[in-house]
Structures are given as structure tokens and as C-alpha cells.
Design a protein that fits this description.
Layout (H helix, E strand, L loop, with lengths): L1 H12 L19 H14 L15 H29 L4 H10 L4 H29 L6 H23 L2
């Protein structure tokens, strides 16, 4: 707020001066964005600079996919928890009412187990991978073989834990 007031006071003090003083830091718009981009690419071509790499040229690896999945499960879990919280506040009835509704759907044990696995896997994966990140935060496990080994360990533990939780 103080910065805004100081800027406005300075601008007001400059009103008594010639008009061009207000715009001393502004550059004239002599070129368009398209012209600037054309100059940029012409300069890079002239200097034989390589184009920046894009995701399509990378070979997918386990650490890359695990990083993307960790972010995705974090966003998904946050969204699901928020949606359930809003639903609990807005929808009429209470928990036993909706539990009876689910039981009345008469879904087979396979679909219920699949739903349980679908809930358990993102939670267990995000938890185990979060522990892996905490291990990295203390400065350990950055060698490439360790990164792959801990990655496969996280995937294996997540699957085993999810199956165990789905069978409960």
C-alpha cells in the first residue's frame, strides 16, 4: 500500500513538469510480437542455436512417469477429499443413509473390490512416494540405480498395500 501511495505521490508531483517525464521508462511500440518472434528465430538460425527440447523428444523413464503420477495423485486426492467434504456439507441425510444406498445397488464383490483398489492405490502410492521424497530431502538416494530401485519399491509396495486394503 505504501508503495502504491508513494508512486501516486510521485506521479502527482510530476504533473507540474512536462508530460514526457511521466513516461520516461516506457519504450515506444515500434514492432509487433510477431515481428519480434521472427527476429528471435532468425537470430537463432543465424547463430546455429538448437531449438529447446520438447517433451516429445524425451524417452519416457520410470522416474519421469513416477513424478508425473505423484503430482496427479496429489491433485486427485485433494480434489476427491474436497468434493467429499462439500458433499457431506451440502447433501441431505447422513453417512448411514448413503451407505445403505450403496448396499442397495447390489454390486458384486468384484466391483466393490475394484472400487476399493481404485481408492487405495492413489493413497498408498502418494504416501510411499512422499516418503521417498522425504528421503531425497535429506540428500540421499540420488544415484541413478538408487532412484530406479526406490521407484520400483514404491510401485511394488503400493500394489501390495492396495490389494491388501481391497481385500479387507
Amino acid at each position: 500500500m505504501a508503495l502504491l501511495l508513494r508512486t501516486l505521490a510521485r506521479q502527482g508531483a510530476c504533473l507540474s513538469k512536462p508530460h514526457h517525464v511521466l513516461f520516461r521508462h516506457a519504450a515506444p511500440m515500434g514492432t509487433t510480437a510477431k515481428e519480434e518472434m521472427n527476429k528471435f528465430w532468425a537470430k537463432n538460425s543465424r547463430l546455429n542455436r538448437p531449438m529447446s527440447p520438447h517433451i516429445t523428444i524425451y524417452q519416457w523413464s520410470i522416474p519421469m512417469m513416477m513424478s508425473i503420477t505423484h503430482r496427479g495423485t496429489g491433485v486427485g486426492l485433494s480434489g476427491a477429499i474436497s468434493a467429499f467434504a462439500v458433499a457431506a456439507l451440502v447433501l441431505p441425510g447422513n453417512y448411514p443413509h448413503y451407505l445403505d444406498l450403496i448396499h442397495s445397488l447390489s454390486m458384486g464383490p468384484f466391483l466393490i473390490g475394484l472400487a476399493k483398489f481404485g481408492i487405495a492405490f492413489p493413497m498408498s502410492y502418494h504416501t510411499y512416494n512422499g516418503i521417498r521424497h522425504l528421503y531425497w530431502d535429506i540428500g540421499k538416494g540420488f544415484k541413478i540405480p538408487e532412484v530406479y530401485r526406490t521407484g520400483y519399491t514404491v510401485i511394488g509396495l503400493s500394489v501390495i498395500t492396495s490389494i491388501a486394503l481391497a481385500l479387507m
